[in-house]
Design a protein that fits this description.
- By secondary structure, this protein is mainly alpha-helical.
- The protein contains two helices and two strands, in the order ββαα.
- β1 and β2 form a beta hairpin.
- Keywords: Membrane, Transmembrane, Transmembrane helix.
Length: 74
């Protein structure tokens, strides 16, 4: 039996129980989906333009995950 990945972030002050489960979990899933698409593209671009390829490959971790995880306070 497989289980879905669950991310828990405790110690935040964004909600009364001070733990977040939904935001980080959906952030991780969005990160994984965007990484599957963007990392191969970034690797091809990296061959020709190093900095642009690095930015493309870093996009899931620096933009996608934080935006999704921080948009849901629980």
């Amino acid at each position: 039996m497989r289980t879905a990945p669950v991310c828990i972030e405790c110690g935040t002050r964004s909600n009364p129980c001070r733990c977040r489960v939904v935001g980080p979990t959906l952030g991780f899933l969005a990160f994984a989906v965007s990484a599957v698409i963007e990392w191969p593209v970034g690797a091809v671009v990296y061959v020709f333009k190093h900095m642009k390829g690095r930015r493309i490959m870093a996009h899931p971790a620096t933009v996608v995950y934080p935006k999704v995880a921080n948009s849901i306070p629980i």
